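Check out one such.
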Amino acid sequence: AMCATCLVPTTGRKKKALNGWLLPIGTHQIRSAQTGSTHRPPPSRDTSHRKMELRERRREEGKETSMVAPDEPVCVSTTVECKGKDQLDGQLSPFGSDTPRAKNTSFFVSVGTFKKPLGIFRALGEAAMSKAKLGFVRTAIAGFMAGMYISAGGLFSVSVGGGMPEIAKTDPGVQRLAFAAVFPVGLLLCAVSGAELWTGNTVKMMTGILNGRVTVYDVVFNWSVAWTFNFFGSLFFAYFLVYLAGILDQQPYRTFITNLAESKIDLLPGQAILRGIGANWLVCLATTLGTSAQSVTGKMLGIWFPITAFVAIGYEHSVANMFLVPVGLMYGARGGFTARSFFEFIGLNLLPVTFGNLIGGAIFVSGLYHLYLGKIPFPTDGVGEVVKGKQGETDAPQKSKAGHVTVAVEKLQHDSRRYSS
């Protein structure tokens, strides 16, 4: 059996802590099923002083984590020796419960509930590597689905916000908030389902190329295919699932969508670019927040508020406009959906907004964080070295001389029921 807090075996030779102290906060003990003996770590001397010193040390290394409840046992860093079968629950194992291990495997465990900036952008770089391997067909299918998902969110917004003409006259802020609050459904579908949304891919692929994980060809290929099939998916949804289905035939929705489409086309090119920068800046920040979360609920909360903000403000999102403007043209904006009105939309709105979205995601988010974090170290062939960057020691796997594999598992709270013999 092992102590639930510090993971020190209660029988046999005790293991030394790795790069830190064991902090017994509160009373913790576990009874051995074989011997009936109880292991209780000795009380720490001058605990408050050690806590302060540890926090200062971790702050200097850029590894300060979120606070935990006072009654929660915390093990800042420790080592567990696993011989033969796993002594850890599969959900907590970085390798998974079915993955074979070496006879001696050690785990470096740090406490927390979300990824920090270094971990977020490492995950984005790894996502870029995965996207570069998708190929044309899979990228096209995923891009088509993303266009439909964003269109579904746009239709939801029109159905809610477009049905408030009187409120829009007296309280326009309320109407704009109602329109914006339901739009994130589309991005949530993209984030959870793995669809290829071009605007979100700007930060992922740029992070990959800045850190040497993908090539320029990979970036151009992914962006061009995703953007094109986002457009196809949006047009398909607008024509078959909205226009032919007669969803917006009735007033006030018909007037609302035509006015919305005309207002977007009437923007000056410079305004469209600047609004595009603001939109994808917030969209890509929402992407980073969603990436930091460890659960679907966390991803929802991280994505929802930045997306609601950019829609309520009035920024321009290229993929959303791929649905909103064409469906407005189909219902009579600019004289109807003609070749002239369609190319006016592309030249006066879609291309300037796309350029602004590119700047907002690739430069305002990925570029600035690259300057802040520096080049992010990645594991090499599954086993690399722990490298110190601007944010301190990384969580890359490390192979020691003795053949032990040390894996950093960020932000993992201990549960005494999961550590038993």
User: Anything to note?
Assistant: The chain has two domains: 1-116+391-421, 117-373. Confidence is low (pLDDT under 50) at residues 8-35, 64-112, 381-421. The first strand starts at residue 30 and ends at 31.
